Amino acid sequence: MPEITSTIAGGAARQIYIRRARLTCTEGENRAQSWLVDRDVITIGARPDCDVVLSDSTVSRTHAEIVRGREGTILRDLGSTNGTFVGPVRVREVYLSPETHFRVGKTELVFRPDDEVIDVVPSTSNQFEGLVGHGLAMREVFGVLERIAPTDLTVLVSGETGTGKELVSRALHKRSRRANKPIIVFDCGAAPEGLVEAELFGHERGAFTGAIATREGLFEAADGGTLFIDEVGELPLELQPKLLRALEQREVRRIGSTKSRHVDVRVIAATNRNLADEVEAGRFREDLYYRIAVVELRLPSLRERRDDLPLLVDHLLRRADGGGRGVRGLDPEVEALFRAYHWPGNVRELNNVIERALPFCDGPTVTLRALPESLRRARPHTGAVAIPAAVSNQMPLKDAKDQIIEAFEKQYLEDLIEQHDGNVSRAARVAGMDRKSITRLLKKHQIRYRDV
């Protein structure tokens, strides 16, 4: 049974493989009791937050665990007092086969895989929480979300910047059994590299320079709820084993501490990179990729779902309440421009354009004069750059080339900074430039940005 599903909008994959296991007590105080668990790591013990909670007094608080991975299923003793046995043999770690009986304390359990293959059917609804779309691509996404939201499956959401990856995480959280617990958001790309570990896992007082007080990490803050790790592909390679441990063991250790803390967290990760390519290039651990991509979901770009534009515009206008101005739609010229534009920032850019246009609307529709100048000047989605009118073949080649490069540079930067909502740090990463260089160019072309 494959460990990962690649459920891709518009692709060929149309199934989700949900890895589940059933443990049944065949001897002991919990005799005949059964547990169905849809996690790859199943904890067994007397502690109330274990997946399999046993009332046997000879069972340790966290006695053992079962880990389902690519190489097979492992039963691992967690330093219990009375041991874990397969037959007469006390084991620390052993591979399990289906129908294997084992004993923890005086309790005997049997392990049975209970995987489920779900056919992905496009949803009949044109929305899922804050997400909207009536085209096939988005209804397939909604069909997947409807099936995986009630589970604890780890999800990797991929897609271009602005396609709604964080909205997907919040929608999954809202539809899950964790909805009344916190959802914590962490952006690996925005955090200074030296502080990523402290942010995720916490630190003790004095653990490093500046650690003037003990602080819990985001895994602990999200205990019982959901942790959304945005731009997981930016996670430094040296920290990836620690994230893998947190996912597999559901334990974290603060910097400067010798004590591990149990956490019950569902992780949803997002990336605009192709993590399979990152694995191939050695920039991302293969075992971590397989652990976070139990379900992999790609969100289509706005260019791939242009038929959703009217529904999206209506949704965004209603959400903004027309700015209190009674704006209900788009002027035909604006609608044509929206359909032709390439939308590098996707739905986020569309939302920003609408919000910025509303204060300049004098009637019930968004008109061309209400749009940002950079969008009014935009060419269709071919990506062509307008050649300045002053350029002609009657001028020296070098001067003509310089003017065209200047025009391209300005249009590129305007689109880039618009795509990233003015965030210069994100824009610099996408452009492959350092912050100082891109800031200098933005000032040169008098393009507004946020100093982040």
Structure commentary:
Helix 5 packs across helix 7. The chain contains 14 helices and 27 strands. The longest helix has 23 residues. It is of the alpha/beta class and 452 residues long. A 6-stranded parallel beta sheet has the order 1-25-17-24-21-18. It has a 6-stranded antiparallel beta sheet with strand order 4-3-13-12-9-10, with no helix packed on it.
Alpha-beta content class: alpha/beta
Mean pLDDT: 85
Strand content: 15-25%
Strand order of the largest sheet: 1-25-17-24-21-18
**Which percent range fits the helix content?**
25-40%
**End-to-end separation:** 45 Å
What's the tally of helices? 14
Major sheet details: 6 strands, parallel
Rg value: 26 Å
Taken from the alpha-carbon principal axes, the silhouette is elongated
The number of distinct β-strands equals 27
SSE map:
Blueprint: E1 5-8, E2 15-18, E3 21-27, E4 34-37, E5 41-45, E6 52-53, E7 64-69, E8 72-77, E9 84-86, E10 89-91, E11 93-96, E12 100-104, E13 107-113, E14 116-119, E15 127-128, E16 131-132, H1 136-148, E17 155-158, H2 165-174, E18 183-187, H3 196-201, E19 202-203, E20 215-216, H4 218-221, E21 226-230, H5 240-249, E22 251-253, E23 260-262, E24 266-271, H6 275-280, H7 286-292, E25 295-298, H8 309-319, E26 329-330, H9 332-340, H10 346-357, E27 365-366, H11 373-376, H12 397-419, H13 424-431, H14 435-444
Parallel strand pairs: 1-25, 5-6, 17-24, 17-25, 18-21, 21-24, 26-27
Antiparallel strand pairs: 2-14, 3-4, 3-13, 5-7, 7-8, 8-11, 9-10, 9-12, 12-13, 15-16, 19-20, 22-23
Helix pairs in contact: 5-7, 8-10, 13-14
